[in-house]
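Lay summary

Proteins are chains of building blocks that fold into shapes. Our project writes down both the chain and a compact code for its shape. Here are two examples, one after the other.
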Amino acid sequence: MKRLLNQSELSTMIAKPIADQQATMQLTFPTYPFTPILGWSISRFELFDKCKRQYYYTYYSKYVKDVPSYKMSQLREMTSIPLETGNVVHDVLEAFLKRLQKSDRDIDEERFIGYARDLVKRYFSEKTFIEQYYLYDEHFSLERVYGKVETCLRNFMNSPSYNWIFMAALHDRGNWIIEPTGYGETRLDDLKVYCKMDFLLPVDNCVYILDWKTGKRDEVKHSRQLIGYSAAANALFDIPWNRIFPRIVYLYPGFDEMEIAVSDDDRERFFGQIKDETEAMYAFCSDVEKNVPLQIDAFPMSPSPSLCRQCRYRELCFPQWRQDDAQKKEGPDVQNIPFPQE
């Protein structure tokens, strides 16, 4: 595992004249011609594995025949309170890092927090939320959202990562890649793969990849993400694996980090999983090259209280939920939901 520089080393680096701190590499994303074949990603396979009906509605909505297109668009565009809270934090940090590329003057913390609050107001006024649509939390408080966003940002500003960016990485800020456009498309073993990264920065012939998290720590899932980021950086930029250091940065409820050392066994296992998982999704296509799915009946529902509660498309599987909830003006009657017996 790559160790972080200690305070003495950081101070020594800061003391070097800028002229002595030459940019070590330039990161440029390649472009790929469009192909309709599906591409693997951690989130895509995770949804496929959890509920194939939700997977169908998410990725093949244009093939849904018995639901008006406007309704599919309405459901697809819904978001959740945790997801949109994370979007605010990501976008505020993106704005901060891009500002830091232009100026390293001290940040006005209160203006920074005020900008985040304004973003919360705008984002939350423009979106439809699953929690409101299905009446889980019809009158949720924006103050709770403000509080979480502020906590995330203050945790970041008081963190070792924040100091490290200023002291070790600032001299090569012209080569930072911050929230790159697109979906992070690359090729791994000739398979189309998506690994969307938040922040890439070169430091002394190495590349660091930082991924912000505002939710719970999930070491199994997040370790796979880190291996995926390493694989993507190796494929995209032809950087040796031993000079790529991916890091999860947890911002809530407290600050924490997770780094892993990617072994040869990890790489081999990961590439094998991508192949197997891609082939599993291919099996649900009638035309793999054109990414045409089988009929909807081939994508079974996997009803469960926790999964269905988070699903945008719940009313398509169980229409009575939306209708009954709207009449009762209360949360869903979980006692009458036809879940399978545990």
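And here is the second example, written the same way.
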Amino acid sequence: MLRFIVLKLEKIAVVLALAIFFQPVLLADPLAFITNQLDNNVSVIDTATHKVLKNIEVEGKPVGVAVNHFKHHVYISTPEASGFTVLDSKKLIPLNSVKTSNGALGIAVDRTGQRVFVADWYENQVAIFDTENLELIKTIVVGKSPSGMAVSHDNQWLYVANRVSDSVSVINLETLETRRTINVGTHPFGITVDSKGQRLYTANVESDDVTVVEIDYLKHPRIISVPVKSRPYAVSLAQNGTRLFVTNQDDSSISVIDTRTLNEIGVIEVGEKPEGIATHPDDRHVYVANWFDGTVSVIDGKDLKVVGTISTAEGSRGFGDFFTR
């Protein structure tokens, strides 16, 4: 009888050990990859614990971030290295470096993980690379000083914010041609598009507002301007697209816009000179990279309050969609 009990307990122990072994894979929380431009590295944040797991060295003053969820890769733009670096999002190591041109800044990946787009600030173009072999497919001329980019959820369109041209280039991802150019506010930088493909939002650094573009390809799109605080930089949607969060660089704050009424419904104080912003895959928590503080603020997008502050490194920018899933 005693022998039977011992064997039974041993079997239970084996089952528990296997469960513990496989649990991290099954229950892994998203990671946030934050570029730290002045320290030449990328902080990897465990969003479950709000702890930095590792700082990955990336030379070339890293700025932009894009995550390929299919290949488990993270693309980091490196303007002073004239290209971008590819990171392994599982092993947290650099895999490759790719040369583009002199002013690589904004970076994005398509919805299938097959192409990565790099906006060149100086050459006024977007370079398109195949993610399989990292070879250049095509370069497309856009407006002056392209910065932020966003891909529509149907993977049909690439939107490019042209800061100096005060415009957005709309690129057809099937033909790889510019379909149209839309005039927005003064010096647009960050950009995002809603999940339905009905609205486009740009943060306009010099006009202190957000441009809302109601997209309709059968006629001219409707343009609406929403005032925010000083020098808005980047934008991110949360709460099923009902709230838009905007980083205000010179106000050290986040403006919250109700997308149903297009009114500012709150202002949240964060670290000094907030820049990059992205929404956690839970659609509730919003992470903000603070340049002067070298921190990331975590905001509860429902209650509109800061629920955590994470120390990263010097010159945190996190410009782009920086979460794994």
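What can we say about the second shape? The helical segments are 2-26.
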